[in-house]
Amino acid sequence: MPLHKTEAFLLRTYALKEADKICVFLTKDQGKVRGVAHGARKIRSRFGSALEPFTEVALSYFQKEGRELVSVSSCDILHSHFERGARDVETASAFSYMAELLTEFLPEHEPNERLYRLVLATLEAVESEDGDLSLILRYFESWLLKLVGFFPDTSHCAVCDETISAGESVFLTAEGTPRCAACGGGKGFSVDAELRSIIDEMFRLHPTAFARNVVRPEHILKIGEIN
User: Fold this and answer.
1) Which tens digits make up the pLDDT trace of 96-154?
2) CA pseudo-torsion sign 96, 101, 107, 110
3) Are residues 61 and 33 in contact, defined by beta-carbon separation less than 8 angstroms?
4) For the chain, how big is the Rg over CA atoms in Å?
5) 146: phi > 0 → left, psi -120 to 50 → alpha, else beta; which?
């Protein structure tokens, strides 16, 4: 069995038998990986506090051909965000939500280094305590969808393929298909020019910078509805 070494974020764990844990990692070069950490539930576990949510670790694991679960060999802390998450309920809930999205949404063993960098940048924004947490979450949701190809491109109409100018509204179908006013007939979920500008800025800025913006509550809600 070959030994794999990579950087990873611990997303969540599940109890297995009396002493073990199933761990879900987002790795830098192998995407989402599930593995067994033997003895992780023991009081004097060799893993220590490395298996806490959103702890960035240097991960080593063995993967046997045909096995869904890898065997975790070592897990050394590079950076822990657990203390920040444990400081208040709102941040803990945000971390849990992010972990749920990544765990349920991503396929197994599909590398996506940009997604790894997104998680790193989002956690840096949360750590900074210098912005609106709800904006940081909308940023994370939107970028996650963009990186996997599901966030609607509001710059072009999917029907006539014409560019939709920055000052116009875009109308999304129930499936998220963008249409110009002429093709959409003014029907569907309206994304006005101001909201389009906010979304464009979101895809240009680091989340720390974006979260410092003053965005009206209705627009924060609408970004969530698009996602």
Assistant:
1) 999 999 998 899 999 999 999 999 999 999 988 777 899 999 999 999 999 988 899 99
2) negative
3) yes
4) 20
5) alpha
